[in-house]
Amino acid sequence: MSGILEQIEPLTQEALQALESAGSLTDLDKARVKYLGVNGQFTALLKQMGSLPKEQRPAAGKQINLSKKKLEGVLISRKEDLELEACLPSEPTDFSLPGREQRLGKLHPLTQVTEDIIRSFRKIGFVVADGPEVEDEYHCFDALNTPADHPARDSQDTFYVKTPDRPLLRTHTSSVQIRVMETQAPPIRIIVPGRVYRRDTADATHNPTFHQIEGLYVDKNVTLGDMKGTVEFVFRELLGKDVKLRFRPHYFSYTEPSLEIDFSSALTRKMGKEWLEIAGCGMVHPKVFGNVGYDPEVWSGWAFGFGIERIAMIRYGISDIRLFYENDLRFLNQF
Ligand code: DAH
């Protein structure tokens, strides 16, 4: 039967058409069985080859196999397309919908605020300094002109370690002022972000550990006016252009005069108050300079310290400090 050779091409076209137009996986499989299956039409053609003259058989066999290969390729790609279609939603996709947000983690709000504070101070020439959290009484108190009978040194306020040299967890970052001045000659312009510890019971505004930023500027002819300008600049960057500052006389043993800084802005009014106390500060006490070997007749300086949690609470309108330490993702995800 010489008709075989002529049948190959039309049969191939017919099979191609059937595979390509199959609208479902079931239809596709039907087409596969019909043309390529064990009892399919191409198998039937191969079986008929025996009736061909011997010299025509190789050419016919080759052509049939080529066609089968081509059809198998089409079968696979059509199958992939149909499988993909089966996974797609039956409703049309609305490409204008917002994408699903990627959550790769983010910085803790206290870290964010600390980094913002550091960034502001860096703009005006301050560098970050660091010191130990387990401190000795000398750096935490004595060198800061804080006498032995001062209440801050009471074990009710302070965590002491039970070893003969009686180290303690630093109660403020002011200890780093001493450490830096002991090892560096003036002028000095540093900020010290860090963790501090006090024997406080946790409530909405207290926690036994919290964070402070200390600032120290030592040079010749330094004035309180420099401090006012510096603190105003940083607080306006952090908490808004409308920030107003007010300085009130206070007492710290390591500064003279000593002041407390209150601040007022739309944020404080939102918290129901015109003024909020935000920092302690003052001109470095001559005795402190004496303790680190700086001549108080030559050098002058100011220092300040404020709580980072306090700033973060005002900035974000948070009313309970404990939220910062609970690691509740519902809270953290808001920043
Ligand atoms: N150390 C003080 C505190 O923990 C804050 C402070 C007040 C720091 C006055 C200073 C300063 O450097 O000059 O409450």
How would you characterize the overall build of this protein?
This protein has 335 residues and is α+β, with helices and mostly antiparallel strands. It contains twelve helices and nine strands. The chain has a seven-stranded mixed β-sheet with strand order 1-4-5-9-8-7-6, with helices on both faces. Helix 1 (3-21) runs parallel beside helix 4 (57-87) and helix 5 packs across helix 11. The radius of gyration is 40 Å and the shape is rod-shaped. The model has no long low-confidence stretch (mean pLDDT 93). The protein binds 3,4-dihydroxyphenylalanine. The site of 3,4-dihydroxyphenylalanine has 11 residues, from strand 8 and strand 9.
Features:
335 residues, alpha+beta, 7-stranded mixed beta sheet, two-stranded antiparallel sheet, 41% helix, rod-shaped
Give a brief outline of the structure:
With 335 residues, the chain is α+β, with helices and mostly antiparallel strands. Helix content is 41%, strand content 18%. It has helices spanning 3-21, 25-36, 41-48, 57-87, 109-123, 137-140, 175-183, 224-239, 266-270, 286-291, 308-316, 329-332, and strands at 127-128, 134-135, 168-169, 188-197, 209-219, 244-250, 255-264, 276-284, 300-307.
